[in-house]
Write a sequence for this structure.
């Protein structure tokens, strides 16, 4: 539940950082580990026993990137595996220049552009029903906490759960099922260009004579 959650890292230390795929991965992991660390925050009664802990051998649920998942270490306990997808750039205006007067009094020209991307949170469980419940719990947490993320991280302009995929059986195991949750987001990058030397004043006649 969003009102009982907090970002474990200092938000003021992160809000000035430019969003990247790696930062978004860390943000989702931090949010979900805090959520599953407290059974009072877990809304689905059938999942309240899935308490996350820092010790990989004791935790009841693994929350990690797909590349660090070790199913044998957790005895194939439920897991939320975080995977960053493709990020695309959306050009803003003409040449990414700010609308209106993009040049300030100090001679700097200001630019901004948008990046649109997504992460997939793979909810892995021992049954199709549990994978479905876990996916619903994850998407609720992201949707409910989205306003807080937008408040702290000013560069992020939009974030939310966009899709819960169909439950599927993992090919390598007869007793493992996965339900993917897709989280979409858009963030802004701003920068400015300031000339360190005056622009060259070359006459047209000189150019044509070269």
């Amino acid at each position: 539940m969003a009102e009982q959650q907090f970002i474990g890292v200092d938000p003021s230390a992160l809000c000035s950082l430019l969003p990247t795929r790696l930062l978004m991965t860390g943000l989702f992991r931090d949010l979900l580990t805090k959520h599953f660390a407290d059974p009072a925050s877990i809304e689905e009664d059938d999942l309240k026993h899935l308490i996350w802990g820092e010790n990989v051998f004791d935790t009841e649920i693994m929350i990690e990137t797909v590349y660090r998942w070790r199913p044998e270490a957790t005895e194939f306990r439920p897991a939320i595996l975080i995977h960053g997808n493709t990020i695309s750039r959306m050009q803003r205006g003409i040449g990414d220049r700010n609308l209106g007067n993009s040049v300030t009094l100090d001679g700097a020209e200001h630019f901004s552009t948008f990046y649109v991307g997504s992460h997939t949170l793979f909810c892995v469980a021992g049954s199709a029903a549990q994978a479905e419940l876990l996916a619903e719990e994850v998407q609720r947490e992201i949707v409910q906490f989205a306003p807080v993320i937008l408040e702290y991280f000013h560069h992020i302009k939009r974030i939310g759960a966009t899709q819960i995929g169909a439950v599927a059986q993992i090919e390598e195991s007869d007793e493992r099922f996965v339900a993917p949750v897709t989280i979409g987001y858009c963030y802004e990058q701003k920068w400015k260009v300031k000339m360190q030397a005056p622009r060259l004043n070359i006459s047209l006649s000189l150019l044509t004579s070269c």
Q: What stands out?
A: DSSP finds four helices and seven strands in the chain.
